[in-house]
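Continuing the series of single-chain predictions for the mutant panel. This is the parent chain; the variants come on the following pages.
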Amino acid sequence: MTATLFTRADLPALPTDGIEATGFHIGWDHAHHGLVPPPELLLDGTPLGQGWRAGRAAFGHRTLPVQRSTRRWLALRTEAWRQGIPFDTQQVTAHYIGQLDVERCPVMRLPLGGAAGAPDAAVIDRLNPQAGHAAGNLATLSQSAVQARQGVDLMETVRRARRAQACGETVAGLDAGAWWRLAALRAYATPLPFHEAARLPLAVLPPNRVRLLNAPQGLQALLTRQFMSPGWSLRTRAIAAMLPAHTLRHDFNLFIGALAPRVLEAGADAKRLRTALEDAWLGERVQRRWQHFVLSLGEAGTQALLERAAAEGMAGVRTLHHAAEQATEGWALPASPAPTLQRVAPSRPQRAARPAVLTPRLAQEGRLNGP
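Parent structure:
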């Protein structure tokens, strides 16, 4: 007897988009992997239930292997479908979801691994909630961090961070460092005016596969990573040599001098060093030196330095550059202006630059970057 393998192409014509087609395909993929969707979605009239039954009839026991990332991918797609949130299945695959795994929450700095719904449960969340589940907009946080940011936009996140820092106490259950880390993560995936992005501290290094849409934050991440391996002094001098003017090189060296003491204090332990560098960005001296340098460098100069340093292998990790029009492809962002944190008039006109987006990337065969 000859077994026949069916695919979606063998099924009756279905809409190419829309909630019905999306639900059907989610059910079909559950069946293809031998998994069962939530019972309440298996009713006869639901698109997901119809897709699951069609898939079971087509594949039978000829199912694909299932890994933890496969289950998380299907669960994320199912939840997005139920909430009506766009999901880019072209780039966000089960393999991609597996690359988002981290050992600890980048916001709370606590180990992950709790049961679903527990404060330390790992949750894949959208950094920019105005965008869909798309490549570059996803990171793994703890359930407690996700709950803390619910209903809080970027402007309010920054406001809470400043309030907690000023009073030295927690605000809405989080200390200043946690609020600044939430603000940095949100800002990575939110296009901001140059002068506003330049004033945000890099309170947390970008997680794997996150796209940094703002050039100042891309340069912050690149410079901070110089300190995470031996030879940082030579590398920072090489970057200084790329600057076009002596005054800029002087400002750059003052910034490096403000950040360097944290490296010496942290020692050789990688996790301790990472934490020390992130915390250093919350210091007044580091922020003052950074802002003086980057605002003097300007938007075009920042973009040029970022691109040149990354092209010469200074990023310290494997990175990808995306052209401006490709940076948010598949994000389904609303057509609205970028949020304004603080209106600041430039001190002098800046030449517009075409942004290229820095994306830290982790190759499966070798941990070239990431947490």
